[in-house]
């Protein structure tokens, strides 16, 4: 592209962006987004960070936080020394409750602009919000009516997990399913590992299979004919707890971790890391063999992201929270 042509495109894009700014100032965010998008499309690879940053602000106003994050990331990429990019991205991250990441951005912003009062205030706001949420979390924990032992275990081991790894348990599953765990791990060892955040009610290994219409979850303890050494039909391990909070913490702590005593070995002689999912217990019939209804509380989380796969990816208007990826996938969903 010739320099003249490039300048012409940028001038046209700037005009579109000025129109967008006017709409944004008047609170008409839909039209503002439309014109920022035209400005961005107009200059293609020469897009200016401020177009993305301003569109991010409009998207944030309209509560499309994940789209806003996408734009804020673009802005940071295009102008990595600009304090405004980090500041705006931290606001998007705060809205997404990713407080640690938001504080990271503010730290970078403070390095670029050490005496900025606005950045310091924002950092303070995030700290206060985190504290409020911790209080809220403690309240919520109380409302589950956990017995003293569970409450104590969670309190004592709370420091082992990071809040950002904690999946939400929107259907209040009381159990977990663990994959990539070895077939021959003794029950005693499973008990030692997996009762870190609450006592275990029941452990079972199970194969799941289908016949024509029905789903069966057949405990292998009742079936002597199955070969325990066949790795292709390695059973899943189900662990049931007495409450829906223990599974959340257990998943947050064990997800993706590798333990020599527990994990299967793959063909390259490497230990596979553990994969954990929420699972209904035998008492939770209403969750057991079919897609559960959307939870009564509107969590804004994407059902497909939580279970199998979301085709919309970053264009999805619902939340895709990292610790919740596939966490509600049940074996019957992969028929
Ligand atoms: Zn989605």
From TrEMBL:
It comes from the Eukaryota. The keyword Repeat applies. InterPro entries: TPR-like_helical_dom_sf, TPR_rpt, Znf_CCCH. GO terms for molecular function: Hsp90 protein binding; zinc ion binding. SMART domains: TPR (SM00028). A zinc finger (C3H1-type) spans 296-323. Residues 296-323 form the C3H1-type domain. Keywords: Metal-binding, Repeat, TPR repeat, Zinc, Zinc-finger. Signal peptide: none annotated. This is CCR4-NOT transcription complex subunit 1. It comes from Dermatophagoides farinae.
């Amino acid at each position: 592209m010739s320099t003249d042509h490039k300048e012409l495109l940028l001038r046209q894009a700037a005009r579109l962006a000025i129109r967008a700014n006017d709409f944004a100032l008047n609170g008409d965010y839909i039209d503002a987004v439309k014109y920022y998008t035209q400005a961005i499309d107009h200059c293609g690879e020469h897009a200016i960070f401020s177009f993305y940053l301003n569109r991010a602000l409009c998207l944030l106003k309209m509560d499309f936080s994940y789209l806003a994050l996408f734009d804020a990331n673009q802005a940071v990429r295009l102008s990595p020394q600009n304090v405004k990019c980090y500041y705006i991205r931290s606001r998007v991250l705060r809205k997404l409750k990713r407080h640690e990441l938001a504080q990271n951005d503010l730290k970078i912003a403070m390095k670029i602009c050490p005496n900025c009062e606005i950045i310091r205030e924002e950092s303070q706001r995030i700290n206060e919000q985190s504290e409020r949420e911790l209080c809220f979390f403690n309240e919520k924990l109380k409302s589950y009516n956990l017995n003293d032992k569970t409450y104590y275990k969670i309190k004592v081991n709370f420091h082992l997990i990071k809040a950002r790894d904690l999946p939400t348990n929107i259907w209040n599953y009381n159990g977990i399913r663990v994959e990539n765990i070895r077939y021959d791990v003794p029950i005693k060892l499973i008990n030692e590992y997996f009762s870190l955040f609450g006592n275990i009610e029941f452990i079972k290994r199970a194969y799941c299979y289908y016949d024509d219409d029905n789903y069966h979850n057949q405990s292998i303890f009742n079936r002597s004919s199955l070969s325990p050494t066949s790795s292709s039909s390695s059973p899943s391990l189900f662990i049931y707890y007495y409450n829906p909070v223990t599974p959340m913490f257990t998943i947050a702590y064990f997800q993706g971790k590798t333990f020599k005593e527990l994990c299967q070995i793959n063909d390259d002689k490497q230990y596979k890391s553990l994969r954990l999912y929420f699972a209904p217990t035998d008492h939770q019939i209403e969750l057991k063999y079919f897609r559960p209804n959307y939870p009564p509380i509107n969590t804004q989380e994407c059902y497909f992201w939580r279970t199998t796969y979301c085709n919309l990816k970053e264009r999805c208007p619902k939340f895709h929270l990292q610790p919740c990826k596939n966490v509600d996938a049940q074996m019957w969903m992969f028929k």
